[in-house]
Amino acid sequence: MDEVVLDLDRIRAVRVLGRGALGTVFLVTVTPGPLLSSPLPPLFALKVFDKRSAAKPQALRRARWELSLLSRLCTCRYRFGDSHHRHHPFLPSLLGSVETADLLAWALPFCSGGDLHALRCSLCPDDEAFSPAAIRFYLSEIVAALSHLHSLRIAYRDLKPENVLLQSSGHITLADFDLSRHLPSQSSNLPSPPRPPLPPIPSDRNRRHRRNLARVFSFGTAEEGFKQKSKSARVSPVSRRRASSSSTLHSGSHGDGERSFSFVGTEEYVAPEVVRGDGHGFAVDWWALGILAYEMAYGRTPFRGRDRKETFRNVLTRPPEFPGRRRTDLTDLIERLLVKDPERRLGFGGGAEEVKAHPFFKGVRWELLPEVSRPPFLVPVVDEEEEVTRASGEGSNVGFDVRDYLKGLHQRQEVSSESLAEF
Ligand SMILES: Nc1ncnc2c1ncn2[C@@H]1O[C@H](COP(=O)(O)OP(=O)(O)OP(=O)(O)O)[C@@H](O)[C@H]1O
């Protein structure tokens, strides 16, 4: 499908779906008018990166990278069993994009079910957990999505429940690719001949890593902002969404063959090799899968300490503890994913196939995953027609222009930074 060039004059926002470090995501509709070059659904998500409020030039680079990756995902055909899909069923399909002097925006299908973190909080107010069957369902779909990304030599690097969105069908979509990275050469994801030892980290990398860690350890907290996401600083599972975008763990990065030496990810999901600055590959995604599985099972992440320093110490030194000490296929899977040495971690040598072969996934019909018609949780139906009418109907005062919204936001931010400067 040819990518649609979006016409911002005809796009009306219904509401803000979320704000992250990189952009604001709106639920939008297109007002009636001359046909666009390709049809868009009545409601879709529009992720908008405001170039004016980009704190750092690398933010714009990351936004462009995310858009280019989404565009690339759209060109891949995908086969599940006998059925061919235009898009991977668990990865977002790019519907269109537009760039102006102030904004870079792209359209994605609307995931009306929210995300796994919100689902867990709504279902399990007392930090009770998902059932093993529900965990198996979500992990299987995530593994299938990671498998596809890794086959394209993309390390996702930001797996966490907030980035696992739920489509209206109840199936997942992985979101948020700005931290992902292309790892160009030989992969640690595929069965491969014995690898030469990992190269030592040159001293400038050590210095850079120390600088990154210093930055990480000296974060301040929170700027407010509704539904603003954080990549770190997760004080408690419920409050972590509202923490500051300034507390992201990603900083300058540079690739080196199949490994990347940047410091990225969400504090409680960061793999030991990232904390150590050893350079990392696809195995960081398998580590994060282990943390996510643990969080789904026990309602909390395994290595959270009183502060960031303690969390990282735990990540580096402590084995995961399993309440109740009962051993199951799930605890075995988690233990194998949370092996500190990436080369001994499940998935390092044999990639996604090795993870799929673990006994926890016994009986999963991988090729039929997208056909599962009864996912563990049903997503409430959104009355699309009503949302569209409310946003675009005559005399409607509900819908708004995303450009006006962001301009207002930008002006408010300017005023507050001016007053801070005066102060
Ligand atoms: N397709 C979608 N459908 C529904 N909601 C969405 C969609 N895409 C994003 N959102 C919402 O917007 C929030 C922010 O989106 P996203 O993670 O892509 O932004 P970001 O700026 O890259 O965040 P981060 O700070 O993690 O980099 C998500 O957590 C989710 O709540």
Automatic annotation (TrEMBL):
Reaction(s) catalysed (UniProt annotation): L-threonyl-[protein] + ATP = O-phospho-L-threonyl-[protein] + ADP + H(+); L-seryl-[protein] + ATP = O-phospho-L-seryl-[protein] + ADP + H(+)
Domain of life, source organism: Eukaryota
Keywords tagged on the record: ATP-binding, Kinase, Nucleotide-binding, Serine/threonine-protein kinase, Transferase
One Pfam short name: Pkinase
Entry keyword annotation includes Nucleotide-binding: yes
Protein family (similarity comment): Belongs to the protein kinase superfamily. AGC Ser/Thr protein kinase family.
Record's protein name: non-specific serine/threonine protein kinase
